Amino acid sequence: MTDKAAKGRTAYYAGLAAEDQVAKHYTRLGAEVLDTRWRGEGGEIDLILRLAGITIFVEVKKSRDMTSAADMLSATQVTRIMVAAGEYMAVKGLMGDMRVDAALVDQQGAIEVIENITLDF
């Protein structure tokens, strides 16, 4: 296996672990996990949860620190997530409130959730 392939494999599994950590964080708050890594025509959504009547679409970003993780999120990506979120709601026949969160995970496993990131872009 090449160094590039090994790094890619490591990043993939680190991302899965970060998504699992974030899902557990939300479930401790009382959320129900509806889907993970859901892919629609608009793109992929890492986590989809339901909490207090709100459908929450979560983009998980893992990096060495919170600032680096936040820097990985772009306005284009947020727009794609919003399109995919609308598609998910339509496909699943869901109605009601929804929001898009960013969950940042650093190399120590700390989690910082930024709620409703659509307001920031």
TrEMBL record:
GO MF annotations, alphabetized: nucleic acid binding
Pfam assignment, any one: UPF0102
The organism of origin for this protein: Halocynthiibacter styelae
Protein name as annotated: YraN family protein
Family to which the UniProt record says this protein belongs: Belongs to the UPF0102 family.
InterPro entries: Restrct_endonuc-II-like, tRNA_endonuc-like_dom_sf, UPF0102_YraN-like
Gene3D superfamilies: 3.40.1350.10
Signal sequence annotation: none
